[in-house]
Amino acid sequence: MRIVLGVSAGIAAYKAVLLLRLLREDGHQVDVIPTPASEQFIGRATWEALSGREVTTSVFSGIDQVRHVRLGQEADLVVVVPATADLLARTRAGMADDLLTTTLLATEAPVLLVPAMHTEMWGNAATAENVQTLRSRGIEVMEPAVGRLTGKDTGPGRLPEPEDIYARVNELLAIVQGPSYAYAPLAGTFYAPDPEAQPALLGRKVVVTAGGTREPLDPVRYLGNRSSGKQGLALAETAAAAGAQVHLIAGIMDIPAPNLPHIAVEHIETAAQLHAAVEREAADADVLLMAAAVADFRPAAYAAQKIKKTDDGENPVITLERNPDILAETVARRDSTGTGPGVIVGFAAETGSADAAPLELAQAKLLRKGCDLLVLNQVGENLVFGRDETEIHILTSAARAAQAGEGSAENASDVLTLRGTKHEAAAAIIQRVTAYVV
């Protein structure tokens, strides 16, 4: 595939050399575009020797080929390593004052920016605003690592290791390439194009819900939850890499959905909006993954004006009413009409109770909801929400377990437990799902 590797002027530029070698060993065509100042760190000869391609920083080179536009147009992915604070600011502003920023402006390919800078620069309000704006446009900005910086300082701002960047690049390439990529779900790995490979979800429609919902109380306040949307987004990306056409119904998320092929994004806010979207999109879906954290309750009445504190010191009374049970309704509709998703996956975020452990509550919920699989997360203030690491338990319904010869869902042997990243969790879930797609 065709990758543009941008390099801006930071001391971490040497790690981009290691990334380039990894990409070239996979057989990708890589055009390196350094900024003029970055050549103070890594010279042009190094980039040309390792990429096997001509390297320039000027928009006036290769004018007959219109390189400043062509490189971006032909790229399957643009990745910038390192992305300095200056590069982030210029990209956010839409500047085109060198070959790299011109290419970023001209491309319609997915863009991955990997920041590296001093801690104070990463924490500066201007940088934070630039990152937020770039992400809102569908550009992915990786979180920097925390560790040793230039000199004796330590903190956030360190460039992630080349192997970590390489892993994310491979995930994005798998989505871009789509069905011609081979996919190993349980390992969460993606291989180079293999004409013999048959992606597990090729031609299937997969609906994924992600993030939390907000239930408005007045024009200022709402009831919400801590969901980040990271697990749902990982599921959408993994399903797309397995060949599916994905419809992502995105609630309130800490991270925006990136601009990626094979993933259509629909934004919602309330449980009622999610209900309508699921009812519409699940009608012709093959798989439904209900990863969104849906509010169980909403205020029974919406106050048109902000609720004020009163002089008498009385506490306001807020009456709640139940939201629709979207998962149970979808299962019931499928079972009664014979239409809808062939595989429905529910998610349970459980803290446990005085009477039951989280796994016991999840087993009861699986039977009550009637879905095919249920994914359990044990949650809390410092567990799961917003983190990149997770622990999941995948429970299989009695009917599906019997179909696969695995026994009954009440048995502990039917519970798959996995600890790892949310993409690794998504891979394990997708593997289980594909076993039941007809």
From TrEMBL:
<keyword id="KW-0479">Metal-binding</keyword>
<dbReference type="InterPro" id="IPR035929">
    <property type="entry name" value="CoaB-like_sf"/>
</dbReference>
<feature type="region of interest" description="Phosphopantothenate--cysteine ligase">
    <location>
        <begin position="206"/>
        <end position="438"/>
    </location>
</feature>
<keyword id="KW-0436">Ligase</keyword>
<keyword id="KW-0456">Lyase</keyword>
<protein>
    <recommendedName>
        <fullName>Coenzyme A biosynthesis bifunctional protein CoaBC</fullName>
        <ecNumber>4.1.1.36</ecNumber>
        <ecNumber>6.3.2.5</ecNumber>
    </recommendedName>
</protein>
<comment type="similarity">
    <text>In the N-terminal section; belongs to the HFCD (homo-oligomeric flavin containing Cys decarboxylase) superfamily.</text>
</comment>
<keyword id="KW-0210">Decarboxylase</keyword>
<dbReference type="Pfam" id="PF04127">
    <property type="entry name" value="DFP"/>
</dbReference>
<dbReference type="GO" id="GO:0004633">
    <property type="term" value="F:phosphopantothenoylcysteine decarboxylase activity"/>
</dbReference>
<feature type="domain" description="Flavoprotein">
    <location>
        <begin position="1"/>
        <end position="171"/>
    </location>
</feature>
<dbReference type="InterPro" id="IPR003382">
    <property type="entry name" value="Flavoprotein"/>
</dbReference>
<feature type="binding site">
    <location>
        <position position="306"/>
    </location>
    <ligand>
        <name>CTP</name>
    </ligand>
</feature>
<feature type="binding site">
    <location>
        <position position="347"/>
    </location>
    <ligand>
        <name>CTP</name>
    </ligand>
</feature>
<feature type="domain" description="DNA/pantothenate metabolism flavoprotein C-terminal">
    <location>
        <begin position="202"/>
        <end position="408"/>
    </location>
</feature>
<feature type="region of interest" description="Phosphopantothenoylcysteine decarboxylase">
    <location>
        <begin position="1"/>
        <end position="205"/>
    </location>
</feature>
<feature type="binding site">
    <location>
        <position position="296"/>
    </location>
    <ligand>
        <name>CTP</name>
    </ligand>
</feature>
<comment type="pathway">
    <text>Cofactor biosynthesis; coenzyme A biosynthesis; CoA from (R)-pantothenate: step 3/5.</text>
</comment>
<feature type="binding site">
    <location>
        <position position="369"/>
    </location>
    <ligand>
        <name>CTP</name>
    </ligand>
</feature>
<feature type="binding site">
    <location>
        <begin position="324"/>
        <end position="327"/>
    </location>
    <ligand>
        <name>CTP</name>
    </ligand>
</feature>
<comment type="pathway">
    <text>Cofactor biosynthesis; coenzyme A biosynthesis; CoA from (R)-pantothenate: step 2/5.</text>
</comment>
<keyword id="KW-0511">Multifunctional enzyme</keyword>
<comment type="similarity">
    <text>In the C-terminal section; belongs to the PPC synthetase family.</text>
</comment>
<dbReference type="InterPro" id="IPR005252">
    <property type="entry name" value="CoaBC"/>
</dbReference>
<comment type="function">
    <text>Catalyzes two sequential steps in the biosynthesis of coenzyme A. In the first step cysteine is conjugated to 4'-phosphopantothenate to form 4-phosphopantothenoylcysteine. In the second step the latter compound is decarboxylated to form 4'-phosphopantotheine.</text>
</comment>
<keyword id="KW-0285">Flavoprotein</keyword>
<dbReference type="GO" id="GO:0004632">
    <property type="term" value="F:phosphopantothenate--cysteine ligase activity"/>
</dbReference>
<dbReference type="InterPro" id="IPR036551">
    <property type="entry name" value="Flavin_trans-like"/>
</dbReference>
<keyword id="KW-0288">FMN</keyword>
<dbReference type="InterPro" id="IPR007085">
    <property type="entry name" value="DNA/pantothenate-metab_flavo_C"/>
</dbReference>
<dbReference type="Pfam" id="PF02441">
    <property type="entry name" value="Flavoprotein"/>
</dbReference>
<keyword id="KW-0460">Magnesium</keyword>
<feature type="binding site">
    <location>
        <position position="365"/>
    </location>
    <ligand>
        <name>CTP</name>
    </ligand>
</feature>
